[in-house]
Each structure stands twice: as C-alpha cells, then as structure tokens.
C-alpha cells in the first residue's frame, strides 16, 4: 500500500478521473459478485484504525449498517492477538467504500487484467460490513504491541451503493453463520490447557474414548455415545478449579483417576460399554450421563480433591452415589435437575443437583449451594 498524489491521470477502469488529491494505492485482485465489481487487498494493521472509523454508536439501529459494538468482546480478542502474536489467525474484514475507485490492472487482457493496483482517494469513507469487533481489537492490540502494525489483514472491499445495500450485506453475511459446537472447539483448541487436558483424559481412557462424542455438543437419539466432549470439559474444569498442582501431567493423571473411579459407580454406563443396553435407553431413562450431572460430579470431586489427592480418600464418598435413584422420573430431580420432564442445566439447577449429591455423600454445602437449597426448599 502506498500513498500517491495525482495531478491528472486517465482512468483504466470505468470510474471518473480525479485530480489534485492524495490517494491510497493498494495491491488488489478484482472480482465480480452479483454482477458488481469488488476487490480483495491487504492492509497493514497500523492503518486499520485510521481507515475504518466506527462512529455510529449514537445512531438508531435503522440508520446504521452494523450492530452496536459489544465492547465486552474487544479485550478478549485483543488479548488473543497479543498473547499469540506468532500464531494468531484473523479472517478478512469485509467493507464498503463510498467513492468511485480506480483499478489499474497489470495487463489489459488475460488473467493479469484481474490483478493490479486499487487507487482510493484518502477522503473516502469506509464502512465495515463484517468485522467491527476485530477492527476494535486490532486497535487495542496495537496500543499494547505497536510492532504488530507492520503485519497485514485481508480486506474484501465492495463499492458502497447506499445504506440499504450495506444493511442487506450485513444481514446476508450473517444469515447462515453458525457458531461451531463447543465439543469441536475443545477438540481443536491447542492453546487452552484445559482443552488439552480434557482431550488427554478422554483419549487415554478406553471407556471414555469409546463413549464420548468428540465433535457435536448434542447427541442424536440413535447415537451410541453417552457423553459429549464439551460436557466432560466443563466437568473437568470444575473438578480441577483451584487445585494446587502445576504439573500438567500430574493434573491429567489426577483427573483420569477421578473419572475412572466415577465410572465404576454407574452400572448402566458399563452395560452400554459392553453393548448390553443402548446409550439411547440410558440417556432417555436416567440423568447421570447428562451435562448437569457431570458438572455436579466435577464440583463434588473438587471438594474431594481439596481434602486429599489419593483415590482411597475419594472412594467411600463416591460409592454412596450407587444408592441414588438416577431415573429421570424420580421425584428427587423434579425442579432440581428436571423441569417438566426435560433436563435443565441452568446455573441454579447445577447448584441444586450438586447440593443433592453432596447430601448423599456426606459433604458440607458451600454457601452458594446452601442459598440455592434454601430458595428451593422455600418454594416447595
């Protein structure tokens, strides 16, 4: 990208010539979508805050081309860039420009006529159609690490044909966007230590490896899996929360031993593993494979691990889980883990389910679970 000053030039693309103004000059590729030209270019990160201004917060929704910036998301994205400056990945920003541009191709015919220089007056106004949170995060990251300014990000640039078109572009770009399942996020995340730890716990256990769905976070009715990786991740995170053990392998071993001991308390799980009954039957009739119970098992396990890190010290309390009626239809769980016949994993239900398990295991209730119990008991 260079800055140029033109006195008089003949346009080589169908836009009017400009004289006497400063311009941006970007290396670019020209393409066509829906019969309209658009351009793909690269832009140094240091120019992003200068070129792509965001000043629409005071406008009503119908007068904007974007949703309001969620400022709570920006620090997290900026931290991702700064902490992973040698491995971060950003997809292209999509933007519109509100002036005529000039495209100077390398050649007048053949494939090279789609490659050239995109010239845009510096007075142009750019509107981000997709990526305003990335743009704000880039600005914050540059303040923390100015050296990032020489790196670049791809820009897909459309010619602006008014507010209505920009709003439609935003709607279209987000129409089919689907957030990936949490399970596959855990499976593919090699930066997050807890994700790596959970993967190892599952992969090192023949039982968990066989019965854990690694990709989706919802199990189909006919799935032969009992658990999802995302549910085990949340449960293992609760299990090791605040546990003073810095060695990664020892943390993996600690979690593995705990979950292997838990597995032994649920005969239905073993029956599924041995193909004696189906996973669908167990998920339908019992609640102990659902995320809420796994999370609760992680929370009670955290208390056991805090008291002692030996399997022998956990076993007596965990064996009491065999005496619990885990049927979905049990009155024990109505309003606590099951509402109207459906398992509910709200924060309040997790507290109530954990409290019920602690009571059976003879463990004291922490203040948050005691408050939830008091409210639940008062309502009944």
Fraction in beta strands: 15-25%
Tell me, briefly, the overall form: elongated
Uncertain runs: 5-18
Mean pLDDT: 88
Structural class: alpha+beta
Pfam family, one: DndB
Organism: Mycobacteroides abscessus (strain ATCC 19977 / DSM 44196 / CCUG 20993 / CIP 104536 / JCM 13569 / NCTC 13031 / TMC 1543 / L948) (Mycobacterium abscessus)
Protein name: DNA sulfur modification protein DndB
Question: How are the SSEs placed, and which strands pair?
Answer:
Elements: E1 2-6, E2 21-33, E3 36-44, H1 48-51, H2 74-83, E4 93-97, E5 102-105, E6 115-121, E7 126-130, H3 132-144, E8 152-159, H4 163-175, H5 182-188, H6 193-203, H7 206-211, E9 212-213, E10 227-228, H8 229-240, H9 248-263, H10 267-273, H11 279-285, H12 291-307, H13 311-319, E11 338-339, E12 342-343, H14 347-361, H15 367-379
Parallel strand pairs: 4-8, 9-10
Antiparallel strand pairs: 1-2, 2-3, 2-6, 3-8, 4-7, 5-6, 11-12
Helix pairs in contact: 2-3, 5-8, 6-8, 6-9, 8-12, 9-13, 12-14, 14-15
What are the salient characteristics of this protein?
380 residues, 2 domains, two-stranded parallel ribbon, elongated, alpha+beta
């Amino acid at each position: 990208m260079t800055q140029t000053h033109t006195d008089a030039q003949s346009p080589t693309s169908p836009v009017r010539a400009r004289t006497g103004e400063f311009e941006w000059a970007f290396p670019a590729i020209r393409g066509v979508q829906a019969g309209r030209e658009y351009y793909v270019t690269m832009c140094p990160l240091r120019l992003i805050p200068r070129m792509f201004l965001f000043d629409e917060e005071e406008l009503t929704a119908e007068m904007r081309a974007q949703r309001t910036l969620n400022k709570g998301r920006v620090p997290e994205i900026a931290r991702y860039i700064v902490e992973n400056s040698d491995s971060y990945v950003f997809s292209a920003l999509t933007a519109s420009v509100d002036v005529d541009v000039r495209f100077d191709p390398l050649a007048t015919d053949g494939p090279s006529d789609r490659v050239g220089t995109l010239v845009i007056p510096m007075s142009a106004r750019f509107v981000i159609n997709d990526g305003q949170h990335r743009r704000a995060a880039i600005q914050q990251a540059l303040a923390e690490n100015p050296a990032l300014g020489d790196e670049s990000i791809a820009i897909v640039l459309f010619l602006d044909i008014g507010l209505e078109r920009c709003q439609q572009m935003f709607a279209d770009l987000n129409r089919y966007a689907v957030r990936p399942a949490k399970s596959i996020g855990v499976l593919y995340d090699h930066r997050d230590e807890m994700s790596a730890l959970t993967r190892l716990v599952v992969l090192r256990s023949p039982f968990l490896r066989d019965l854990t769905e690694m990709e989706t976070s919802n199990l189909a009715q006919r799935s032969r899996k009992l658990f999802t990786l995302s549910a085990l991740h949340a449960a293992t995170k609760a299990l090791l929360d605040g546990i003073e053990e810095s060695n990664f392998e020892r943390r993996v071993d600690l979690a593995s031993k705990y979950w292997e001991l838990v597995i032994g308390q649920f005969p239905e799980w073993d029956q599924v593993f041995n193909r004696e009954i189906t996973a669908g039957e167990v998920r339908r009739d019992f609640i102990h494979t659902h995320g809420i119970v796994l999370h609760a098992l992680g929370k009670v396990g955290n208390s056991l691990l805090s008291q002692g890190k030996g399997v022998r010290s956990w076993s007596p309390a965990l064996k009491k889980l065999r005496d619990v009626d885990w049927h979905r239809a049990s009155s024990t769980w109505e309003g606590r883990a099951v509402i109207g016949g459906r398992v509910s994993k709200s924060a309040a239900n997790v507290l109530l389910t954990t409290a019920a398990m602690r009571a059976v295991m003879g463990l004291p209730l922490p203040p948050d679970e005691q408050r939830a119990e008091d409210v639940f008991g008062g309502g009944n």
